[in-house]
From TrEMBL:
SUPFAM superfamilies: P-loop containing nucleoside triphosphate hydrolases. Pfam families: Helicase_C, PriA_C, Zn_ribbon_PriA. NCBIfam families: priA (TIGR00595). InterPro entries: Helicase_C-like (IPR001650), P-loop_NTPase (IPR027417), PriA (IPR005259), PriA_C (IPR041236), PriA_CRR (IPR040498). GO terms for biological process: DNA recombination; DNA replication initiation; DNA replication, synthesis of primer; double-strand break repair. Coiled coil: none annotated. This is Primosomal protein N. It comes from Shackletoniella antarctica. Residues 108-275 form the Helicase C-terminal domain. GO terms for molecular function: 3'-5' DNA helicase activity; ATP binding; DNA binding; metal ion binding. GO terms for cellular component: primosome complex.
Length: 363
């Protein structure tokens, strides 16, 4: 048996912060090409004048999501993974590097495109480094602390940075999802969510749920003291259901709609799911093993309500030089999960198999 306990109010009945949605399409049409909207810039200037502090949240570390050639369209890719390299530059005078966030590979930033030799390489997307750089250009008087996995690698760095911020050592804390929980600072009155869209369109069945959790959590960092808080949520899709739920602090309606979709598709927790992840250094071996396992799984599912999706290449087909394939089994809650442990006997030594029940992500 279980009991659901709802906490609809803050401690001492403190008011929830006002969430203002900024349509970044309007900002662009009005000539603002900065990653900081005009309302957020105005709020940051007022925050500084009043002696308060703020948080800026973005879901990516680094400077930019990827680097592309404007002449031929070539994208700088990791040689070991099927993902683009992220651009990193800690400071204006620091070395420019390209890094893979999956296997750790890094290289220097090329001066010209390796495909067509064009010098016109552009950085697309935003990360914590780029936000800090933009702040330095727009608000040189604002001091910032960058708070992500790149700046908290060393022992004690996490606590040291938070302590420094709590003691007034900076005006702004700029970071990733590490900001969303555990920060209870009464002097924080402004929270800026730089690019909410990056959370809304992940390739997982529960991307919307996870986005709602994270956005509500980071919005809740504002106004925890005697002064009211403001949240500026920047997005290109202001009509998204998650945005509406965050704006009204109303997750009940979102949960009801999400639950209906999960029931229709038999996704957890309305159904059960098993993800079979296969990987190998040999692309042929892993593909053939995936086909063999699919035949074996179909035999296991005979006479049940479960269904098999796949086999298919994983959303990121190659990570750290290993090629990856997926098979997905899903079915109703009222039937026991099929026993798939004996599938390992059909895998050659060169192929690794992981069986993930109710996976938290499909990557």
């Amino acid at each position: 048996p279980w009991t659901y306990l709802s906490l609809p109010q803050r401690v001492q009945a403190q008011p929830l912060p006002e969430v203002k949605v900024i349509d970044m399409r309007d900002e662009l049409q009005d000539g603002n090409r900065s990653i900081l909207s005009r309302p957020l810039q105005t709020a940051l200037a007022a925050m500084k004048a009043e002696g308060n502090q703020g948080l800026l949240f973005i879901h990516r570390r680094g400077h930019s999501s990827f680097v592309s050639c404007r002449s031929c369209g070539h994208v700088m890719m990791c040689p070991h993974c099927d993902v683009s390299l992220s651009y990193h530059q800690p400071g204006a005078n620091s070395a420019m590097t390209l890094r893979c966030h999956y296997c750790g590979y890094s290289q220097g930033h090329p001066k010209q495109c390796p495909e067509c030799s064009s010098p016109y390489l552009k950085h697309f997307g935003s990360g914590t480094q780029r936000v800090v750089n933009a702040l330095a250009e727009t608000f040189p008087a604002l001091s910032c602390i960058r708070f992500d996995s790149d700046t908290t690698r060393t022992k004690g760095a996490h606590r040291a940075l938070l302590t420094r911020f709590a003691e007034g050592g900076a005006d702004l804390l700029v970071g990733t999802q590490m900001l969303t929980k555990g920060i209870d600072l009464p002097q924080v009155t402004v929270v800026g969510i730089i690019a909410a869209d990056g959370l809304l369109y992940m390739n997982d069945y529960w991307a919307s749920e996870r986005a709602l959790q994270m956005l509500i959590q980071v919005a809740g960092r504002a106004g925890r003291g005697t002064q009211p808080g403001q949240v500026f949520l920047q997005t290109y899709t202001p009509d998204h259901p998650v945005i509406a739920a965050v704006t009204g602090h109303a997750y009940e309606g979102f949960i009801a709609e999400e639950w209906a979709q999960r029931q229709l598709l038999q996704y957890p927790p309305a159904g059960q799911m098993v993800l079979l992840r296969l990987s190998s250094n040999d692309p042929k071996a892993v593909e053939q093993t995936a086909a063999t396992l699919a035949q074996q799984v179909m035999r296991h599912l005979e006479g049940t309500s479960y269904q098999l999706l796949g086999p298919a290449p994983a959303p990121i087909p190659r990570v750290a030089r290993r090629y990856r394939w997926h098979l997905l089994v899903k079915g109703p809650m009222d039937e026991p999960l099929p026993n798939l442990q004996d599938l390992r006997h059909h895998c050659p030594a060169s192929v690794s198999l992981t069986i993930d029940v109710d996976p938290l992500n499909l990557a």
